[in-house]
């Protein structure tokens, strides 16, 4: 029994999913770069490892997606769940690692590779879903790939703009990363504000960029409020 072709409305929702995935993936990477800058001064080596490692991991993820294409739906859902969990907690994990053992390029590199591989698996799976039930020629396949790439790059643009102008200034680094997780999981990040514990007076801020209440100050590995 051949698979049934999906409707145009569902194809549009798949394109929206492509953009959301790309935006969340880039937010996670920008969060790692931002935290690396705060904790370690943002050296050229670390920034290069994050950027180059992420791009290389995209290719590895695309290759790793080949065995999953015959079960694209469940594979995509599981990958999104794991990506949201790992990406959303990556900044906090890196901060805790810095507090306990100091600077760690290994954790930074592993986080980048894992996030990049999960993001890289998304596009082949989504293209499989997008093409389901259709017999197309080479030109049509190229057109579909161009559409998916456009949605992917648009999502990356939105994520790249949302991080410095919206998530980081108003939610901070930790909560901003978690907001990327909740957006990817189609949940409202507004609930995070109600779940956040009250901040004690004079307590240490976990690298939370808040324009009105704190500033970056390296002192014994901690960032203190103004």
Helix content: over 70%
**What amount of the residues lies in strands?**
under 5%
Note the overall shape. elongated
| Structural class by secondary-structure content | mainly alpha
* Weakly predicted, low-confidence segments: 186-226
Q: Largest sheet, if any?
A: none
Total beta-strand segments: 0
N-C termini distance: 66 Å
Element pattern in H and E? HHHHHH
Count, helices: 6
Task: Report the average pLDDT across residues.
Answer: 76
Rg estimate, integer Å: 19 Å
Task: Summarize the structure in words.
This protein has 226 residues and is mostly helical. It has six helices and no strands. The N and C termini lie far apart (66 Å). The model is unreliable at 186-226 (pLDDT under 50).
